[in-house]
């Protein structure tokens, strides 16, 4: 009886290991999530401004003057487009991640637009 229980536990552990092998993210996926890359997009200032108005003014103010979040009026002097893209995608401090709310191309467009604010 004890052999049957041990055999059952062994096969259950093996099945669990196989499931984990196919569902856990690989090294490349984890690296991409930790360091997202800025997609190549053509800057569309009107779309970027609309995206900012729809998603950012609550914390950063309607003129990007700051409020709950910091001022973004001269954010381009502190961060390039890649840095802004990483912050918006992953979040930083109290700022939430927007990777589930906005497409990478939308975030890239906003990052490029904000990077010009110096």
Can you describe this structure?
The chain is elongated. It contains 6 helices and no strands. It has 118 residues and is an all-alpha fold.
How would you summarize the topology of this molecule?
Blueprint: H1 2-23, H2 27-34, H3 45-55, H4 57-60, H5 81-90, H6 104-115
Helix pairs in contact: 3-6, 5-6
Main beta sheet:
none
Rounded to an integer in angstroms, the radius of gyration calculated over CA atoms is 22 Å
Helicity range of the residues? 55-70%
> Which ranges are low-confidence, i.e. pLDDT below 50, for 5 or more consecutive residues?
none
The pLDDT mean sits at 89
Assembly classification: single chain
Beta-sheet strand percentage? Answer: under 5%
- What is the ordering of alpha helices and beta strands? HHHHHH
Distance between the ends: 75 Å
* Structural class designation: mainly alpha
Shape: elongated
Strands, total number: 0
Number of helical regions: 6
Brief synopsis:
By secondary structure, the protein is an all-alpha fold. It has helices at residues 2-23, 27-34, 45-55, 57-60, 81-90, 104-115.
Which key terms come to mind for this protein?
mainly alpha; single chain; 118 residues; elongated
């Amino acid at each position: 009886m004890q052999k049957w229980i041990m055999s059952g536990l062994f096969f259950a552990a093996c099945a669990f290991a196989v499931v984990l092998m196919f569902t856990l993210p690989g090294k490349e996926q984890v690296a991409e999530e930790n360091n997202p890359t800025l997609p190549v997009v053509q800057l569309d200032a009107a779309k970027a401004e609309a995206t900012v108005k729809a998603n950012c003014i609550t914390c950063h103010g309607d003129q990007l003057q700051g409020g709950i979040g910091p001022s973004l009026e001269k954010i381009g002097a502190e961060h390039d487009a890649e840095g802004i893209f990483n912050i918006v995608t992953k979040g930083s401090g109290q700022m939430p991640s927007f990777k589930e709310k906005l497409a990478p191309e939308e975030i890239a467009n906003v990052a490029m637009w904000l990077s010009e604010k110096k």
